[in-house]
Structure formats: structure tokens, C-alpha cells
Amino acid sequence: MKIRNWDKVKEGTLLVVTWHDIRSDDRWLEDTEAQSFEPAICKNVGWFVNDDKLNIRITSSVADDGDKSIVVIPKGCVRDVRKISYTNS
């Protein structure tokens, strides 16, 4: 499911984002193999930070002071987003 209403996703929601990435092959390929070559399917797990018109941002690491690592994924590459139930205990 692609999330259409990103403004309703709360900061800190745990997500699994499946997205397509560029993939290349510099070998000589026959037409049938070249024509069926697919992008890489990637998955990232992280807490929702924010989004804008083109991108979503998630983090998989947050320090005690709030500093965080960041992953920016272009929305056009996103194929699926799943919310994960999580309790910080």
C-alpha cells in the first residue's frame, strides 16, 4: 500500500518502506535478457521523520539528544509502505 496522505503519518511511526533502486549491468546482454532487466528491490525499516512533495525521510538510529541518522527516499521510487506496531518499553 502506498501512503497517499503523508500528512496523517505521525513522526516516530515505525515503517517498512519497499522501493526500487537503479540497477545496471555492463556485460553484453542478449535482447531478451536486456529487455527483462529489472530495478533492484530495496527495503528500509525506520521511524518516520517527515516528508515533502518529493521525498520521505526515515531514521533507524536516534541518540539520547535527538540527533539521528537519515535515509531520504524519493516518493516516486516507493512501491509499498507498511506500518509496524512498536512499543518502546
| Total DSSP helices | 1
Which word captures the global form? elongated
What is the radius of gyration computed over CA atoms, rounded to a whole number of angstroms? 16 Å
Q: Kindly report how far apart the N and C termini lie.
A: 28 Å
Structural class: mainly beta
Low-confidence stretches: none
How much helical structure, as a percent, in the residues? under 10%
Written as H for each helix and E for each strand, in order along the chain, the element string is EHEEEE
Question: How would you characterize the largest beta sheet?
Answer: 5 strands, antiparallel
Number of strands: 5
Explain this structure to me?
The chain has one helix and five strands. It has one helix spanning 31-35; strands at residues 14-21, 40-51, 55-59, 71-74, 78-84. A five-stranded antiparallel beta sheet has the order 4-3-2-1-5, with no helix packed on it. The longest helix has 5 residues, at 31-35. The model has no long low-confidence stretch (mean pLDDT 91).
